[in-house]
Design a protein that fits this description.
four-stranded antiparallel sheet, alpha+beta, 16% helix, 2 helices, Immunoglobulin-like, 161 residues, nine-stranded antiparallel sheet
Length: 161
Amino acid sequence: MLNAKRGMLIAACAGTLLAAAFGCGPSIPDKIGFAGQNATLQSGTQVNFQDAWVTHDIFKVKLWVQNMSQAFMMVDRDGFALRLPDGRVLRRAIGTFTTHQPYNLPPGGGHEVFVDFRDPGQDMRQTINAASLIVGGISFSTDPRPRVVGEIPLVPTGEHR
């Protein structure tokens, strides 16, 4: 009787280990897409959402930023941030060997803006189920102080292709 129970326990453990080794259950895609919306934010800043996705270690967002004001606008990508559902705010990832020059936009002008964010030690595909892009680092020739002009909610859409 004891040998039969021991045999069933060993078989159950072996089955569990085998299932874990080959990954039973749903798997997480390598790249998860996010949807955003276009928005006219404070101070005449128009943001057109293009694309966003998250992989294991990085969250990337592509936007088109347009100056709808009557003054020259400076867009400093290092002023962008990502607000997570747990309340934390991730600053834009800054590389060791890269410098990020601000974009100078004339009235009516626009520029494509790519920003990315990292959360070291986290699988960002598992920890981010929603986010909010903080559009900051915006200044004008009439007032050169950088400011946050608004936030754009981002929601997951499934596997990104």
